Amino acid sequence: QVQLVESGGGLVQAGDSLRLSCAASGDIFANNGIGWFRQAPGMEREFVAAIRWRDSRKWYGDSVKGRFTISRDVAQNTVYLQMRSLKPEDTAVYHCRKAKEGFYSGSHFSEDFGSWGQGTQVTVSS
Length: 126
Prior knowledge:
- The protein has strands at residues 3-7, 10-13, 18-25, 33-39, 46-52, 58-60, 68-73, 78-83, 92-98, 120-125.
- By secondary structure, it is mainly β.
- The protein is globular, with a radius of gyration of 13 Å.
C-alpha cells in the first residue's frame, strides 16, 4: 500500500512559481502512474498532470500545459509539480494520487486514481 503526502503549497502572487512535492512511502511499481489533481471551492475536480514511474512519460491538463512540469525522483520516491506563471485561477487544494491500473496509460479521470489525501493549498493572489 503506497501512502502519498503532499507538501509545498502556499500563498504567492500571480506570475510567481511554486514547487509541490508528493512523497511516497511504499513501493511504486514501474508501470504505476502518479497524478496531481486540484479542486477549488465549488468547482469540479480537475486533472493537472501525471507521470508514469517507469519511463517518466508525462501527461498534462490543458489549463496547465506549458506552465507546469511534473517530474519524479526515484531515489527520493517523490513526485514534484513545478508550477510557473501562476494565475489566480490556479488557486485550489492540490492532491497527488496513485493510478489504480497496474499499467498507467494516461487517464485523466478521477475515478481511475486512488484515494485522496489531505492535499496542499495553493493560493495565487492577483
